[in-house]
Design goal:
Layout: H1 4-40, E1 42-43, E2 46-47, H2 52-80, H3 86-111, H4 121-129, H5 139-153
Antiparallel strand pairs: 1-2
Length: 156
Amino acid sequence: MGEGFKVAMAAFDITRPLVASGAVGLAQRALSEAVKYAQTRKTMGKPIIEHQSVSHMLAEMTIGVEAARAMVWKSTFIKDTGHRNTYYASIAKCLSSEVAVRNAGMAVQIFGGAGFNTEYPVEKLYRDSKIFTLYEGTSQIQRLIISKFLPTMYPV
């Protein structure tokens, strides 16, 4: 009796990396769509991927995807080896969800006005990305969980 909250919280150690992996998938799709579009859309006689500002946005999107994917893998590996992964699950969930939102937004930016056209998938990715920062605990809750571990990880 009285163990319900603890059981529910332990379940998040399993579900948060799953949510994070979905967010990584969305972030990857936004990146893929943006790269394809940037290779075919031309301004000033050249593909926009050759413009420094666009190429830097694509690089930033790539960095986010790879970092988020690595955190998902780390959190699931720790759980798979029988250890408590609350700390890493929260990092993976927070990072991945925010990368998904950022990548979807950057993809819309790269598409320009076409980014809000329902004929392109980035419009839907943009709308769908926000939910990842909300369910299984908001990004603010993830930061709170992460911060609770810091005093024991970095004792005075």
